[in-house]
């Protein structure tokens, strides 16, 4: 696990997480594929108790939530580091009343992407 790009576990205590094995089952892929998704930043993960932990909010019933990969690309293209992106995804936006990661599951998903673009650099 040491070679995976993992952020420090600064997730709020109410954020549910999944192990790489849980993610593999959910996506119906191998654990190796999950590690590749993390390496390629199609998923972000934190280090919890020495293991990779992926926030459950990054998923919906169909797999990785629709706008997640694009949002992460916008954040990275805008100069965010992996750790900064993870922090931003789990910082409550007062006017939305939720984390951007949670807003991806609402009608505010495109607004979250717009805000990420505006925060660049």
In short:
The protein has 6 helices and 6 strands, in the order ββααββββαααα.
Report on the architecture of this protein.
- By secondary structure, the chain is an alpha+beta fold.
- It has six helices and six strands, in the order ββααββββαααα.
- The strands form two sheets. Strands 1-3-4-2 form a four-stranded mixed beta sheet.
- α1 packs across α2 and α3 runs parallel beside α6.
- The chain is globular and about 35 Å long.
- The termini are far apart.
Question: Could you list some keywords that capture this structure?
Answer:
121 residues, alpha+beta, 4-stranded mixed sheet, two-stranded antiparallel sheet, 41% helix, globular
Order of helices and strands: EEHHEEEEHHHH
Please give the alpha-carbon distance between the first and last residues. 30 Å
Shape: globular
Total tally of structural domains: 1
Q: What is the strand content?
A: 5-15%
Classify the helix fraction into a percent range: 40-55%
Structural class: alpha+beta
The count of β-strands is 6
Residue runs with pLDDT of under 50 for 5 or more positions: none
Topology:
Blueprint: E1 7-8, E2 17-19, H1 20-27, H2 31-39, E3 46-48, E4 51-55, E5 59-60, E6 63-64, H3 68-77, H4 82-89, H5 100-103, H6 109-119
Parallel strand pairs: 1-3
Antiparallel strand pairs: 2-4, 3-4, 5-6
Helix pairs in contact: 1-2, 3-6
